[in-house]
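Extended Data, panel c. Modelled sequence:
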Amino acid sequence: MAPMGVSQFERFFRTAASLDVDKDDLRRYTDFVNRKVHDLLLIGQATAKANARDIIEPWDLPMTKGLQESVHEFERMDVEELRPLLEQLITLPPVDLAYSEETETRLPGIAGGLSLALARTFNILDPKLKNPQTEHWERAFRIFDSLL
């Protein structure tokens, strides 16, 4: 991630959850976002196939109520400069079906919602946490892996 992008994500985590993150944290974060987007797209592919379609639409993605709320809240935040960074950050995994244009357009917002939910998960794990350590990241990842 470019240095300008690093500072924007650091600011996002401070704004979203009063957290101080560093470059190592942002590498973990990038891996997390791509894993979770990939998971959503894999289930979206299965849903599209089950409905005899050859393209993954946004409604195929398994969006929980909480994730939808996080996406909407992320979109209301003053972080518009993150959208192009999230577009660059997301690596679309190779799947058997094509992604609709609308699905691709929504992915940065979904990644933003995942980001907001992740940041707030740290506060749930430890309300006094300011600088997440490896153990905090691993716990948060286990929570998301069990739910998404």
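The chain has one domain: 3-147. This feature is highlighted in the accompanying rendering.
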